[in-house]
């Protein structure tokens, strides 16, 4: 980031307007979304503007809290669903480092057909006003890397017109729109929502293809980035690991945006003055318990849901492989060197530490480092032996405190440590119980 100041030719400063300036290149080439020439894997989340006391009126403290939590949990991108956000949000994303999909405030969800308005030329002026003011207001923010034509509005001629307008005034950024699918040129990125990895969902109204089917469409070479996936309501993200296995397997599949960031509930107080999260029929409306606003990775007060830990783990930038006593550490960072991290390892017997150590990480962008563990002491009793590795940041950063753990992995070891440690996979342990008339298998 740089500060830009303008003066007259003779150096006289008459009036000043300051803004953050960043330099980066975003383009699509050979089916890949490239940032400064490197394929970008989107670790994204959808975010509504929501405050537990003030509703959609946001303050700077809550915005910063959101950004810090996102970065601490390995998110690198946010989709402004489904409207342009407060202007300060973009400045904060510029400064802290989050990629932004800026989305026009257009949604005709509920119309039959869904493109009833977006294919009607009488609605083009209203749609055009919302798109043009978004682009004109936010185009100088380097954090904005993609424009979005809106959400769930089918596909109509108005989308095509607005796509052409954006490309004419700002050819430096791709444009995405989910409703366009693969049948239109109104999107540079194929961005379906809730596509499963390898299973089609034949809904009568809008069939949802699997990710693998999207990738196999003949002649299709646009990047595939899920605009919404892994719906985070309740006990969620059980299939998150499968998505991230696919993201790392298929180059054109460049990540996605989890739905969504924060529960949209409001704080109320009981007769004793204790706060609680209110939603559904908690406001004297028709009795109901509708909870479809409660689908975030964090509660309205930003307390994390358990699923946030799973998101952090699957999205972590360091990947690990164990072979014998050698740990291979691979970095998925595109541009930064691991200059503020240590690898902490520990072997524990039934949860009790047996041996541990710490090694400085020295991994370049997209590089690898091999770490050899020392000979380990033989345990005095039988039990489960586990090796746990953690990447620890000893120093504070702009978005994390000293001691922040950014990545971790764990393996079950052979009980006899005098034998060479086996190569270990990330396979989920299998648990099977059975009886005379039932069989239960987990894992």
UniProtKB/TrEMBL annotation:
The molecular function terms in GO held by this entry are: beta-galactosidase activity
- List, separated by semicolons, the cofactors it needs: Na(+)
Residue ranges of domain Beta-galactosidase in the record: 327-413
Q: What is its EC number?
A: 3.2.1.23
Q: Which reaction does it catalyse?
A: Hydrolysis of terminal non-reducing beta-D-galactose residues in beta-D-galactosides
A GO cellular component entry from the record: beta-galactosidase complex
Acyltransferase among keywords: no
Arranged from A to Z, the UniProt key words for this protein are: Glycosidase, Hydrolase, Sodium
> What's the family?
Belongs to the glycosyl hydrolase 2 family.
Query: What's the protein here called?
Result: Beta-galactosidase
Q: Which organism is it from?
A: Escherichia coli
